[in-house]
UniProtKB/TrEMBL annotation, chain A:
Protein name per UniProt: Nicastrin
Organism of provenance: Rhizophagus irregularis (strain DAOM 181602 / DAOM 197198 / MUCL 43194) (Arbuscular mycorrhizal fungus)
Signal in keyword set: yes
Main location, first listed in the record: membrane
Membrane topology according to the record: Single-pass type I membrane protein
Entry similarity comment: Belongs to the nicastrin family.
TrEMBL record, chain B:
Keyword Transmembrane helix: yes
Name of this protein: Gamma-secretase aspartyl protease complex, presenilin enhancer-2 subunit
Coiled coil location: none
Subcellular locations according to the entry: Membrane
InterPro entries referenced in this protein's UniProt entry, alphabetically: Gamma_Secretase_Asp_P_PEN2 (IPR019379)
Protein topology in the membrane: Multi-pass membrane protein
GO cellular component, one term: gamma-secretase complex
Organism expressing this protein natively: Rhizophagus irregularis (strain DAOM 197198w)
Membrane-crossing residue ranges in chain numbering: 20-43, 55-76
The keyword Transmembrane helix appears for this protein: yes
Keywords for this protein: Membrane, Notch signaling pathway, Transmembrane, Transmembrane helix
Assigned protein family: Belongs to the PEN-2 family.
Length: 695, 99
């Protein structure tokens, strides 16, 4: 009797330990090699979904199709089983992805962005870097821009693959070796492919990968917001001015100097956005710095100068549209509780804010939209230098305007041109974008949001491109590795120089078509440009980050991210601290960690309480609003309503797979063993009972 | 194991069978299913067999009715969940991820 119970107990305990062991990581580590995952995620808007999703964990044999022909062969082949297809980024066209999907042989895609062949001795690249590649639309964000109702819109990105806006119901991950773990993962995968090729895909075991990338959100933005399965795409813009006393009724015209601070691409973790994003915002900071060294303080000029660094511009102008909406429309504070509430986490009493609608402070009301005099916008400016004949550096930038007949626009264009003329004579290196006889109006830009409310505001968009957006617009290749770092820095520096001089003159009403750079005391500090460039690209230990950076990753993602009330990401914090210090009226000795440590009206910039009119401003889709309960709702489905799905974890593992025949064999053996052991137990029990005479 | 009529008085077994049926009316179709499985061997009982059979048929009809109702509801719900929008999300206990 007791022995019987004991036997059962032993059986039970061994079963439990077996179960526990099989859940254990050590067990998994033996069979699965964890890889660094750089996934494409699900994005939704008011009308539907885009991006990637994998409802069930999937797996497949690794296969590499380097060329279109190899890919076509694979699609047409009568191979059995499921494959994870490694595609060079250039082949990531919608047509290819759709035919892979309908072939039924593909369980996931790995996008090969760069990397070398680990087995070759001279580390030759597996694929060539494309000359141009943009996963974005042919006319990016045009449906949300100033010309959305125009019948024939100019196509700014003719080479765009248009895959960012497509919906894929299978996992797509990126292969992008850049640091130790990602290089290790990459090598494992490429070695796996070569292993499979050596075994001709028939001699098992072969190398396979397993994905799990379940995105919680489905259907559309309003559905996932209701279910609490998504967050609005966005973040925080930063605006800053040296005019500490700027107010709504001072009647002083305002010059806006603007840039976009972030970027987007298919794989958010590796978004770099060097040209589209970083270059303009570096130029903006450099201009602010140059103007702060003006012999007469710029706050005493006839015009205010306001710097705006917008977040989420690549997502249909999130930052600029919300900023303009807030300063343009009359603001009504419906409820102010002065203390943090569940729906609005700000101590609004401390900063003069409002509980509903939720704003930490209402200082944006001090900016009178009617006073805006002109806009200087810096688009991508990293690539303004090319090698001309005789290997001589050639500088070339272009000024885009909405209307060339607008006298204000003409003045800004001519002024910039004149200031950029080498030696003060001839045509300058800042040219009119329509000098080739084609008038294209404005490229996708922040100025559009301002012109939407008043089309007559003189606005110039300064860029290094004339007819097409940069070659790697919103792509993972926009990392500057095709350019020389010193060339990028001098490109940003020279355009920042001309723009700062133009802004300086214009703020005193002195800008003219014959303005000359000679005698202009304003010049940009190119060393600062270099430092900013390092900080925002490769140097995690940069001194400008000291005040607020905790983690020290080698690489900073310039992806927009999601809007979370009161929590600013790295890039807005960077701009807030840097611009806050540059435009400071006075910097006190009092140390601080946060704005709350300082007095009313002060901000905490670079760990010091600073008297500076520098603020964060919300940035999320113009079609979204927060209601009284703090929930995001869609108020205008026609406007931008981008939201990003929530997820819990990504699985991305490499493992050895056996053939389906041997898998059936294993199953059969298992069943047989179970039957055998049942028989053994029955007979064993009888035998024990008999020998021990238990009955 | 059905109740043994040689140990428990048949009248008591019959009243138990009736109780199962009537309590089952309180939206408890599983109780009817239990009733059928538990009592079925007793339908051959000479004394109370006929009566029990009657209640088991009632239980069966009830269980069948619920099966049809629930499976119809399930198929409607699964197919119409998205169209119903907010209402469907409200009546759901655990939100469904990714669909």
């Amino acid at each position: 009797m007791y022995i019987n119970i004991l036997l059962k107990k032993i059986l039970f305990i061994s079963l439990l330990t077996h179960l526990a062991l099989s859940q254990d990581n050590e067990f998994n580590k033996v069979f699965y090699k964890k890889l660094v995952s750089v996934p494409c995620v699900r994005i939704l808007n008011s009308t539907g979904v885009m991006g990637c999703q994998s409802l069930k964990p999937t797996s497949g044999l690794l296969i590499l199709t380097e060329t279109q022909d190899l890919l076509n062969d694979f699609i047409k082949s009568d191979r059995k089983g499921k494959y994870v297809v490694i595609l060079p980024y250039e082949l990531m066209t919608n047509d290819n992805l759709r035919s892979l999907e309908s072939s039924g042989k593909m369980s996931g895609v790995l996008t090969l962005i760069n990397g070398t062949d680990p087995s070759s001795s001279n580390s030759a690249p597996i694929i060539q870097r494309p000359i141009f590649l943009s996963p974005d639309e042919k006319c990016p964000s045009c449906q949300f821009g100033l010309y959305r109702n125009d019948e024939s819109r100019y196509i700014w990105n003719p080479n765009g693959l248009g895959i960012i806006q497509e919906r894929y119901d299978f996992p797509i991950f990126a292969l992008y070796p850049y640091d130790k773990p990602s290089i290790k993962s990459y090598n494992r995968i490429i070695n796996g492919v070569q292993f499979n090729e050596r075994k001709s895909y028939v001699r098992f075991p072969l190398k396979a990968v397993e994905f799990d990338a379940l995105m919680y959100a489905a259907v559309d933005a309003s559905t996932c917001l209701r279910r609490n399965f998504c967050n609005p795409v966005g973040g925080y813009s930063v605006y800053s001015t040296p005019s500490i006393d700027m107010n709504e009724n001072d009647g002083k015209p305002i010059i806006i100097v603007s840039a976009a601070m972030d970027s987007k691409s298919l794989f958010q973790d590796i978004t770099f956005g060097l040209n589209n994003g970083i270059s303009g915002s570096i130029a903006l900071i450099a201009i602010a710095d140059a103007l702060s060294r003006s012999p007469t303080p710029v706050k005493n000029f006839q015009k205010h100068i306001l710097f705006t660094s917008f977040a989420g511009e690549s997502w249909g102008f999130l930052g600029s549209q919300r900023f303009v909406k807030n300063i343009f429309e009359p603001f009504n504070c419906i409820q102010n509780k002065t203390k943090p509430t569940t729906s609005c986490g700000f101590n609004t009493g401390n900063f003069g804010g409002c509980t509903f609608p939720c704003f930490r402070d209402l200082d944006f009301k001090r900016i009178n939209f009617g006073n805006i005099d002109s806009i200087f916008e810096l688009s991508s400016v990293a690539n303004g230098i090319s090698k001309g004949p005789g290997n001589i550096q050639e500088f070339k930038y272009f000024v885009h305007v909405d209307n060339e007949n607008n006298a204000g626009n003409r003045l800004l264009m001519q002024g910039l041109g004149a200031l950029s003329a080498v030696g003060g004579t001839g045509a300058g290196f800042v040219r009119n974008a329509s000098e080739d006889g084609v008038f294209r109006k404005l490229p996708p830009s922040s100025s559009m949001a301002f012109l939407e409310k008043n089309i007559n505001i003189p606005a110039v968009v300064i860029s290094d491109f004339q007819a097409n957006l940069s070659n790697y617009y919103n792509s993972e290749y926009d990392d500057g590795s095709d350019l020389d770092v010193s060339t990028i820095i001098s490109s940003i520096c020279s355009i920042a120089n001309v723009t700062s001089q133009a802004v300086w003159l214009h703020a005193q009403n002195l800008l003219s078509p014959t303005s000359s750079a000679a005698n202009n005391p304003i010049s940009v500090n190119c060393t600062l440009v270099g430092l900013l460039f390092d900080c925002l690209t490769v140097d995690a230990s940069c001194s400008l980050f000291d005040a607020f950076r905790k983690s020290k990753d080698d690489r900073i993602s310039h992806y927009t991210g999601v809007f979370q009330q009161g929590s600013q990401q790295l890039l807005p914090r960077f701009h807030y601290n840097v611009l806050g210090s540059i435009n400071a009226n006075s910097i006190s000795d009092r140390k601080c960690k946060n704005d709350v440590d300082c007095e009313f009206g002060e901000i905490c910039a670079n760990l010091h309480c600073t008297n500076s009119f520098t603020r964060y401003h919300d940035s999320y889709g113009a079609g979204l609003e927060f209601n009284e309960k703090g929930e995001t709702t869609i108020v205008d489905p026609e406007k931008t309503t981008w939201v990003e799905s929530v997820w819990s974890d990504f699985k991305f593992n490499l493992f050895n797979i056996t053939s389906s025949e041997s898998q059936i064999g294993e199953l059969m053996t298992g069943i047989l063993l179970t039957i055998l052991s049942i028989i053994c137990v029955i007979f064993g029990k009888k035998y024990i009972r008999q020998t021990l005479k238990l009955d | 194991m059905p109740p043994n009529p040689s140990k428990i008085p048949p009248s008591e077994i019959l009243s138990l069978c009736k109780k199962f049926f009537f309590i089952g009316l309180l939206f408890l179709p599983w109780l009817w299913v239990v009733n059928i499985i538990y009592m079925w061997p007793l339908t051959k009982h000479s004394d109370i067999g006929k009566e029990i059979k009657k209640y088991l048929y009632f239980s069966m009809a009830g269980a069948l009715f619920w099966l049809i109702v629930l499976s119809t509801w399930y198929s409607i719900f699964v197919n119409q969940r998205i169209t119903w929008g907010e209402f469907a999300d409200k009546i759901i206990v655990l939100p469904i991820r990714g669909a």
